[in-house]
Each structure stands twice: as C-alpha cells, then as structure tokens.
Amino acid sequence: QVQLVESGGGLVQTGGSLRLSCVTSGRLDNVYVVAWFRQAPGKLRELVASIRRDDSTNYADNVKGRFTISRDTAKNTVYLQMSSLKPEDTARYYCAAMDYGDSQYLYWGQGTQVTVSS
User: Fold this and answer.
1) Distance from C-alpha of 4 to C-alpha of 78, rounded to nearest angstrom
2) Residue 40: is it exposed, middle or buried by C-beta count within 10 angstroms (0-12/13-18/19+)?
3) Chain segment 1-13, per-residue pLDDT in tens
4) What percent of the chain has pLDDT over 70?
5) How far apart are CA 41 and CA 45, in angstroms?
C-alpha cells in the first residue's frame, strides 16, 4: 500500500502562485509514476501533470509553461508549482500513484482545494 497526503492549497488571486506538496509513504519501491489530477465541480477529473521514476514529466496542454512538477526523493515528496493561476484552475487537486505493471492509478490522496479568484 502507498499513502499520499496533499497540502498547500488555498485561495489565491488571478496571476498568483501556489505550491502543492504530496508526501508519499508506504511501499514506494514499486511506484512508477506519481501524478497530480484535479476536479472542478460538475467537471470530469483531469490529469494535470505526472512524473516518472526517471524524472521524465508530462503536462496537460492547458498548464504547460505555468505548472511544474518535481520531486524530492529524500523527502518522498512530489511538488506541483503553479504560477500564473487562472480562475479556471480552481479545483480540488489530488495526488495519485501508479505501480510498475499497472495501468491505473490505484493510490489516491484526499485532495487539497485550490481556488483562484478573478
């Protein structure tokens, strides 16, 4: 089992920045990728960014150039630095992990709320 705990959400004005943190624990040796998802009310959950064990990253088109995913292996923490925030970034942000050999994210955190005011 893998546990994930998110933090860092809050209320920010348009154009502002926030850094989300995802602290991971448990059986981490088999984790292949950690990702950030978000879900706004009435909308489908969407993948925001992901980082693999080799530090390769992927981003959704609507956050490229504004968000950066990174990890600190010593702290077992994955970060999502968000800049130039827009009201449409308002959502609950979730951290998720996928093991080697799996095709789904089986491990999820409780999420942290990000609200961007206009």
Assistant:
1) 10
2) middle
3) 999 999 999 999 9
4) 100
5) 9
